[in-house]
Automatic annotation (TrEMBL):
GO terms for molecular function: endonuclease activity; nucleic acid binding; zinc ion binding. CDD domains: HNHc. The keyword Signal applies. This is Inherit from COG: conserved protein. It comes from the Eukaryota. Keywords: Signal. Residues 1-20 form the signal peptide. The lineage of its organism: Eukaryota, Sar, Stramenopiles, Ochrophyta, Bacillariophyta. Residues 448-507 form the HNH nuclease domain.
Length: 529
């Protein structure tokens, strides 16, 4: 936290011109001329890529403490964002801050982020502002926010903030002091105390906002990158990720089998499970375009996807409401796909899913296997994977022991990701086909089924739905008994999977021939049920 506050303070001093212009002495000029131009050019390129132009010369502002109280009452100040930790300061620490303000001394600036027009989240300084507002709002004539949730949270905090306590010997004379115990001048001075703050503007690129959050966090609460993402990109997409990591039991069973088995599974406090879910979506959508670093790659997946209704997969489309509908549809589709892929992975691989040689989860195996299964589920059913699980598991085990994965590393590049995914797709596809053939090698139906199927189908062709001439059932090449679900896709050679068709319809299945027959032949009112 110290580093973040120091950066803000230095920025304030420099931008205000307090120190004046730096003297351009001859000595300073000589130093400039002695710069290593090659090194300067190299580092300049790096700085240009890292700097935040949108935040250049962003200066500090000031408002009275009472102004912040009014913002909280009106609902334009979000003191309790979902993504932030609760109020955690001990009474000694909060009391000391109140004493500092009562004694007219400086406290570090706040950092606010305008998340929507006129509504601000407290990014840095939440504990400080909560302390001061809690002490101020404990007065007898205090007004509370209209939002019942915010009101409830503030009322719950007031008992611990209404009176100073546990102050050290330098301030112990103030123990027990409440706002109503101050004389009128002191009360006015407290509520008019000038709070310095900086605002991250509404239109600031999310990549810049992420870096600011990370800078502030670098010396303080030690949040992980995923926890910072939850603050910067909080919206429908991130909420879906949180829901999956919290509720998808197949994911729990794969991520920590022992804890799941014993009923002691817990979500990760550092949000590594949420980052794993995000990785799946990021590589599914844009794995072929991956460029280091993984931090920026995951951020790009989330950029623009939250409350503005912009899909990570594309550009803005339509008006605000249409974009939100598009986002909600995309979120629902990705959630359904995730649950299907993870369910298949657990059914087929059990506790070894996404692992190499029964070690911890492998990120590279997670990325590639998730995408391989997702793509195959577009043409195969979940039950096909379950039936072929022995073949699939055996093929992957061989690859890990002796084949492709025996020489693979944990490095992530677009080329390596695609190679892993395509290898897995190929061995899984081969295993699915092998299992399908072994399940049912018999492809021919008994000719005795013709009459039975004719009656069940009310004398209609199963493809063109036109009349079959019963007198010609035994005629060669007039009718065929066909698989409803193709044999090549796991369809069984059983009565329940059989249909009677014109031979010509069966031979031209999938072509325009059947459609033309439907147009030129009289359509029967009765269809096969």
């Amino acid at each position: 936290m110290f580093r973040g506050l120091l950066l803000v303070a230095i920025h304030f001093v420099l931008s205000s011109g307090f120190l004046g212009e730096r003297p351009k002495s001859k000595a300073a000029s000589r130093v400039l001329h002695d710069v290593n131009e090659d090194a300067a050019a190299r580092y300049e390129d790096a700085l240009v890529e890292l700097e935040s132009e949108a935040l250049y010369r962003l200066g500090c502002q000031q408002s009275d403490l009472s102004d912040f109280c009014n913002k909280l009452e009106r609902g334009s100040l979000n003191l309790f964002p979902e993504y932030q930790r609760a109020f955690v300061w001990e009474p000694a620490k909060s009391s000391r801050l109140v004493a500092t303000v009562l004694c007219n001394r400086f406290i570090p600036p706040l950092v606010l982020h305008e998340k929507s027009k006129g509504v601000f989240d407290v990014v840095d300084g939440k504990q400080r502002l909560t302390t001061l507002l809690g002490f101020f709002m404990s007065r007898k004539d205090a007004r509370f926010p209209g939002d019942p949730v915010i009101k409830e949270k503030m009322i719950k905090l007031l008992p611990s903030l209404s009176r100073l306590s546990k102050l050290d010997e330098s301030y112990e004379a103030l123990n027990g002091l409440s706002f109503d115990d101050l004389d009128l001048d002191r009360q006015r001075a407290f509520e008019s105390y000038a709070m310095s703050y900086m605002v991250i503007p509404l239109d600031t690129p999310r990549a810049d906002v992420f870096e600011v959050y990370e800078d502030i966090n670098s010396g303080g609460t030690d949040l992980t990158q995923q926890q910072v993402r939850r603050a910067v990109f909080h919206g429908p997409y991130m909420k879906m990720i949180d829901t999956l990591k919290d509720t998808c039991t197949d994911f729990h069973a794969i991520r920590n089998p022992k804890a799941f088995q014993s009923g002691t599974y817990q979500t990760c406090k550092k949000d590594s499970d949420g980052e794993l879910v995000l990785r799946a979506f990021a590589f599914r959508n844009n794995g072929d375009k991956f460029k280091p670093s993984i931090k920026k790659f995951l951020n790009r997946e989330l950029e623009g996807s939250e409350d503005y209704g912009i899909s990570p997969r594309g550009k803005k489309k339509g008006n605000e409401q249409q974009r939100l509908i598009l986002l909600q549809k995309m979120v629902a589709e990705q959630r359904h796909e995730f649950e299907s892929v993870i369910r298949v992975a657990r059914q087929v691989f059990g506790t070894s899913a996404f692992r190499k040689k029964k070690e911890s989860l492998s990120n590279t195996m997670w990325d590639a296997k998730y995408c391989a299964i997702a793509e195959l589920l577009a043409v195969h059913r979940e039950v096909d994977f379950t039936r072929a699980k022995d073949h699939i598991a055996k093929a992957l085990e061989y690859s890990i022991q002796f084949g492709f994965f025996s020489e693979d590393d944990e490095k992530t590049t677009a080329i390596k990701f695609l190679a892993r995914k395509e290898h897995l797709k190929r061995i899984f596809q081969d295993a699915l086909q092998e299992a399908s053939v072994q399940r049912d090698t018999r492809r021919q139906f008994s000719p005795k089924l013709k009459q039975q199927l004719f009656e069940e189908q009310n004398g209609l062709c199963g493809l063109c739905e036109q009349t079959i001439d019963e007198q010609r059932l035994d005629e060669a090449n007039y009718v065929h008994i066909d698989h409803i679900i193709p044999h090549s896709k796991g369809g069984r050679t059983t009565e329940s999977n059989a249909q009677l068709t014109h031979s010509e319809c069966n031979l031209h299945k999938g072509s325009k021939h059947v459609e033309q027959n439907k147009l030129t032949l009289p359509v029967s009112e009765e269809r096969r049920q």
